[in-house]
Amino acid sequence: xxxxxxxxxxxxxxxxxxxxxxxxxxxxxxxxxxxxxxxxxxxxxxxxxxxxxxxxxxxxxxxxxxxxxxxxxxxxxxxxxxxxxxxxxxxxxxxxxxxxxxxxxxxxxxxxxxxxxxxxxxxxxxxxxxxxxxxxxxxxx
Length: 141
Hints:
Blueprint: H1 3-19, H2 24-71, E1 81-86, E2 92-99, E3 113-122, E4 130-139
């Protein structure tokens, strides 16, 4: 083999390498970037799903508390004290009824009724239970 033949073969090999596509290092870097991007996306989606689930649970607790507020004076007596129970699915509730400060016993216009502060609490989690408060009018006992 001559030196000229060797030079021609070397040039052909170089051309083939440059025409060949991606190197192994480029492929590894591309897969690494793809893996990081997929990890970030999956964390974002799972965080969104957790937030959606928490919002649904909280909305259900608000509905429970509203329904229990509607029952005060009908199935839950409008009298001072604390009433507790559970809903059909086992979710606990607490209704606390007390006189509203400055509720008007001495007021001539409301001498036959007393303003009660009604508070319903439904625990969603330990840190933030759902608590709704309203005022109901009832007879003075």
